[in-house]
Design a protein that fits this description.
By secondary structure, the chain is an alpha/beta fold. Helix content is 43%, strand content 13%.
Length: 666
Amino acid sequence: MPTQIQNRRTANAIRILAMDAVQKANSGHPGAPMGMADIADVLWREFLKHNPKNAKWANRDRFVLSNGHGSMLLYSLLHLSGYDLTIDDIKNFRQLHAKTAGHPEFGYADGIETTTGPLGQGIANAVGFALAEKTLAGQFNKPDNAIIDHYTYCFLGDGCLMEGISHEACSLAGTLGLGKLIVYYDDNGISIDGEVEGWFSDDTAKRFESYNWQVIKVDGHDQNAIRQATKQAQAETNKPTLIICKTVIGLGSPNKQGKEDCHGAPLGMDEITLVRETLGWANSEPFVIDDEIYQAWDMTAKGQRAESEWNAKFADYQTKYPSEAAELQRRLSGDLPSDFEQLTSDFIKACNDKGESIASRKASQNTIASLLPHLPEVLGGSADLAGSNLTLWNGAKGVQDHAGGNYVHYGVREFAMTAIANGVALHGGFIPYTATFLMFMEYARNAVRMSALMKQRVINVYTHDSIGLGEDGPTHQPVEQVASLRYTPNHFTWRPCDTVETAVAWKMALKTKNAPTSLILSRQNLAFQARTDEQIADIEKGAYVLAKEKSELQAIIIATGSEVELAMTAYDELSQAGVGVRVVSMPCAEIFIKQDKDYIEGVLPPNVRARVAVEAGIADYWYKFIGLDGKVIGMTSFGESAPAKDLFKHFGITSEAVIQAVNELI
């Protein structure tokens, strides 16, 4: 135990609040907050540039608690430094509707920059923050005014480093030279199962040095050493820095410090009494912090001065560079350019006039090439598949070569790519998009979920969307993935059938501020579908009548993506046979079900029970639209290796199967 621990009143306040809150909730993790209190004390009171009275100040430093199970560390810091987080909020830890949730939740309380808890994703978010800062600075800073200039600080633990995403993200951070990323590793040697040396024996320093990081080792309870290491980290502008802090988990707990006992469970009242004696807090009731400690912690005046200084700097920037200042403000607000609606409408009309029958991945590339020159806030990237995802365009500039670039070559890092994009979106000033094959969304799945949970505008481009990718076989042919995405709350999944629907899907993805969007795109060419202006307008509603019945309505065919063409072929034959059938294209089911009742029933009249859904994905999803008495032409197994045309025939996803299903139902 470090000497003079009783004199570290500001750090000990964190320890007291953390253990008291966990004890009252009878749930939580006191060990990490108590072990990292000295590091947090130095960083937050001496280095972190932030304003508790304006948690969204654009040029604030970002702080990420990647080891989010130690959430009481962050809550204590926010409360002590002057954010809108009261002692009652601390007492309400882990209770229903509390600002102080079980893990830091973005949007619940001011000062929480990102939701953390799934280990490893916080450090990946931090890489995204640092990437956004560097790229935004490259786009807006001037020789006489560095208007974007802040650090990203991150705490992490052994669990984060064991998760594979930390390798993906930190490797890329070193390659990109993100010098304003500073990470503190809580090297306490303990995880839930005990001492980690039995399952985590990496040489972490060498690992990060190989990533092109600066690595510094310190005693995590030597505040002067932490202070000097932080200064050294700030001085290194070409590499991110990992500060390895050797700590004692649960420091201050005489019987439980250094043991797994204090990792994820309350200390117990008897042990808390001993902690109070050890920390010189014996005469205080739970949750009581002396006024002089609050005064030492209060960062309000310091934060307001820092923001005022930046505001003066921005006023000078506005005077000298008015157009850039206005553009920066627009982008930080998340607003699209004023001509966005006209721009997209013109492009959609051009797609309709041209009538091309091309793959929707190619239609997506055409959309990117047309829209992105007018949307400098879009920061794209692909996981080593740009030539297949077709996300590169002639205006793309890699961030590895251009300080103010607009494209990230993520390498084969699907999980980190998506979590980094979440950090970019959270930072502000950018709309990120990612890209990979739909099958490899599975690697990124938890980060996609976090985008939705945090309500972030992240666009996922997923190509090679079905058995239609052909010869690569079942390992690469997605079957259940689209349904999984559709079932994700606060997430929109678009599977367009041609160039026009693809353009509309991109438009809606860019417009959707508070949710991520996944674009599900084909490898193979898709037939263009002719439409009226009214039908084009209705695409934005998620589903619409593409082909109206020519006689009294008897049956409805619902289709998406490449299978719309099959539905239209079936429609022609059935109509010629006198069957009253309509085709509904449903590129985004999640948007369709949000429409008003009249529109929904206008597209899918409830009295028409003869319904067939056709999609080259898992069949089960569609019963919500067709009822148990309907029929689905879809997949009930994994795919096979063969040319696409042979696979569709083999699995019975054909116009003939649609016709047969309709005839059986009527």
